[in-house]
Structures are given as structure tokens and as C-alpha cells.
Amino acid sequence: MSRRALQLEGRRYRYGFLALQAGGAPRELADTLLEADWRRRRLDDFDLWTHPETQAQSFPNGGATFVFLGDVFSEAGRSLADWSASIGPDDDAALHEALDELSGRFALLVVAGGRLRVYHDAFGSRAVYYHAARPAGVASHAPLLAEAVGAGRDPEMASYIAHREFVRLPRKCLPGDGTLYTGIRGLIPNSYLEVETGELHRYWPREPIAPTDLDAFMDKATASVEALAGYVRGRYLPVFGVTGGADSRAAMAIFRMRDTPFETVTWSRKNLFSGETVIIDDMVRHLGVRHAYAAKPKEAEDIGRLAAENSGLYPPFRTLGPLRKRFKRRTDHVFVRGWGAEILRGFYNLHEAPMKALTAEDMTFAYSSPAWTDAAQKRTAERCFEGFAVRAGYGSLRLDGIDPNDLFYWEHRMGMWCPAALNGFDTLMPTLVAFNGRKLFTAAWGLPAEQRLSKELMLELARRGDPVLGAFPMALKPVKPERTRRAWEPRLGPPKPVKPERAHPPKEPRHGAPERRVAARTASAAPTAGSTGSLPSRLKHALQWRLRRLLRKLKSPAPRKR
What we know:
The chain has about 550 residues and is an alpha+beta fold. The protein folds into 2 domains: about 5-200, Aminohydrolase, N-terminal nucleophile (Ntn) domain (Glutamine Phosphoribosylpyrophosphate, subunit 1, domain 1); about 215-360 and about 395-470, Rossmann fold (3-Layer(aba) Sandwich), CATH 3.40.50. The protein is built from 22 helices and 17 strands. The protein has helices at about 5-10, 25-35, 80-85, 90-100, 140-150, 155-160, 165, 215-230, 245-255, 275-285, 300-310, 320-325, 340-345, 360-365, 375-390, 405-425, 440-445, 450, 455-465, 465-470, 515-525, 535-555; strands spanning about 15-20, 40-45, 45-50, 55-60, 65-75, 100-110, 115-120, 130, 135-140, 185, 190-195, 200, 235-240, 265, 290-295, 335, 430-435. The strands form 3 sheets. A 6-stranded antiparallel sheet has the order 2-3-1-9-8-10, covered by helices on one side. The protein has a 6-stranded antiparallel sheet with strand order 4-5-6-7-11-12. Strands 15-14-13-16-17 form a 5-stranded parallel sheet, with no helix packed on it. Residues about 480-495 and about 510-535 have low confidence and may be disordered.
């Protein structure tokens, strides 16, 4: 194997982890992980495997042990050791309260008395997958866990994603919390996993949403992003994606206010709206940062194909090849995405028909908008969301001021689609989410709707950090012209009225047909006695045709003699 191939193989399941019952890993998989320098440690009755680049920190807590995997920090500025020491033994209420203080992209393993519980960050950006049957197991990547427990591909989901109606979805997210592997599911945000039983337990929300004002939200959002900037400074060189939008712009403004250096990149120019390039170039000139436009080739390179395997769902990442060349000079980059902003400013709330309740029917409609036209696809999605609602505890959940549109968008679209996408992007560089915290989300949800449900909310946050950056206009999506309906798409609006049938002259027979001779003979015949003098319809049309032909001959110029 070449050196480049070995380096690429070292990025398989990058920053990942795997926890199984002691000795439960298949011999072939265990040998492969050891050859790739994965670390193995014993946690009571479990073996924990971690990728060589995975950050792992362990803190004792009475008879329990807290094991953090990934990037994690306290927004209050406390060390993880102090945070762990502040939680009393077996005090789950204190643990759940303290989790609201943490941010980053991490999984937390709580080990005590042979019992293993798994939490993750508020957004759910650190993907956590679990096996819902025996053997018990949990991992950061669905394909890794499937290989460890012997789970095969789910034929129903394979058929589902091959359907044209799934292909047309703007975000390729599976319904519910399932994966492409039988029995492998994703951990839903705001719930923790009991690994031995494969059961989820919701621990948030714990109290009603309190009303807030705009200044209080801006202070909280600024402090949250400042904490992220303080964490990455000295550890990473952040990279932001620059567009004419407002979400990443707000985070960049606060990073600039905190004098945290960063670089920027923009995906292919072909994906930009008209005039958006001018806005991007002006913003980059104002920021004075290193910037590049990343091409999107027709074919993915080897790193893009591996990224698709790591994601467990997505097609090859075509942009990773050009990005690898762009960022190869350093190894300390971290990509900071503007995700989480739509949890703040609303998404499904802005649809023409927003959700009314956390039912499988409403969730399917919001997820598949525009709605499915294939009944089998719709039934599959509804069945998946029925199971999702049970595991998320929606049946007994008191919303207490929470809009179901916000909670569903957070726990499904962000909590299921985004982690898989981040697993793929990790193949190139680690990734963090700019807006990540329960206290931050609830501060936004307490705002009046007229202040919150707009992109103007993020522009105002950008102006708080950098008034000039926040003053640049947003690139507006142009209104697409109506296109021709495809054969398989439903016809929108009322059906076209059926035109009444009308008589047409018979198709004129070609040269010398007997019908013409019959019509000519009939035309010369006189009306019979007792008739009304009206000609039959067929004879009438024949005479009209002969008259039109004669008129055409009269109008056409005579041929010129040589």
C-alpha cells in the first residue's frame, strides 16, 4: 500500500470511538483497529476503542467515571475537572443541569457499577449511534458499529433512498432516527442512552421557556460564541464558509471582535446567487483574511469517497479534493459551521403550513415538504417517525412554551442529518458548530415571534460584533421561473377544464382517393324533392375544402416561363 493510501486509511472513522462489551469486537475488526493505532481501554464491563486523533479525558466522580470524547468546554469558564467535581455521586439531576453549561462537539460516557450511559452535546453534533438489540454497542460512526455487531444493510432503507422522491430532497436525511443498517439508530438530542438495554431517556426540557428580550438574547449569543472563540484560540486555526447569508457572518463578527484569527472559503461560484460574489469579495476585503473559492469537480477524489463511507449515508464529497489542496499547508485547521442559527431564528415555523403537534403525520409533512406523491414512500416515512416519536418521548412531553416546529427541527434535522455530514467532513478536518447550547436556544425561543423568526436576528448579532460586517446586504434567493411539470410530479392547482368535442373535417385523403371522387359527384347532384335544401355535413366539409384549395391556387403566383 502506498504512503498516500496509508495516510488516507488512517482517516477512516476519524475522531471516532467504539464501545462494546469486553471482548465483543470481532477478531478481524480488532486487528484492523490495532493496525490503525486505535487505542483500547477497559471501562468496567466494556472495551472502549478510540481513534488515534480522538481527544479522550477521564475524571473520577465518587464511584463513577466521566469520560469525555472530543472537543468540550464550559461556557462558564470552568475546567472539566472542576465541572466533574461539582456533581455529587449518583446525582442525575445535578448532572443534567450541569450539562447545559457545556458546549463543543463531544460524547460523555458515564461509567458506574457496570452501567454505561452516553450523552452528547446539546446540538447533537457529535454523532452517537447505538445497536438497539444484542450485542449491545455504541459508536461514533454507523458503518463502524454495524461491522462490530454484524448488522447488515437495511433493505427497506436501501429501497427508500433509491426512490426519486428521496433523491429530490434538498437535504438527504432519513426519516426518524434510523440508518442504512438494520437495528442501528442515532442518539436523539436531549436524551441519554442506556447502552446495555438500548433504551433512550429524555432529560430536557425540565422547566417552561421563560420570556426574554432582544438585549438579553444578544448578550447570551455573544457570550456563547465568545466562549467558542476562546476555546479554539491557540488550539486550531478556524475556517469559516463565507456566503451572502447571515449565520456564519454573525459568528465571524464575534470572532473578529475577540481578535481570534481565522480563514475563509466559499464553495463553487456556480452555486451562488446573482450578485453574491460581489458581496463576498467586499466582506473578505473588509475582514482582511485569507480566502479562496473552492471548485466542485464532476468526480470526487479518493478523500471524497472515503468521506461518504465515514458519513454512512451521503454520496461522495466532491469538494474535499480541492479543499485538501487548499489547506494542506497546516494540520491545525477546524471548520466552524454556522449551523444552529436556524434553531435560533426558526425554520419549519416559516413554512406555509407549519406543524401543529409532534405527530408522525405532521413530522412527515414537515420533513418531506413538498409532500410525497408516492404512497409507499409516505407510509415508510410515517412508520419511521412513529418510532422516532416513541423513543424521543413525545407522547408524554409537556412543551411548556416550546414550539413543536423548533423542537422537531433541532432533534431530527439538526440532530440526525448534521452529525452524519460532519462525520464525512472530518475526513478532511475537524468540524465545530458555531451556535450550540440549550441556554442559547431557550434564550432565542423566549423572544417575541416578530423579533425572532427572521434572518434579521442574525444580522443584528453580526452588527453587535462588527457593525461594518453586519451592514453588508444579504444575497437574496431569486424567484425561480415556473418550469415544465415532470411526468411523475403532481399537477398543482385545479385540473384543467375538459374542452368540449367539436367536429373536425376529415383528414384529407391523399392523391386520387375514392372519397374525393364521391364528394365531387355528390356536389353536382341537385337536392331531392321534399328535402330542406341543406347538404349533409360530410358533403359540406368536402366543398369547403375544394373552395380553400381553389383560393390558394388563385393567390399563388403563376410559374415563370423560361
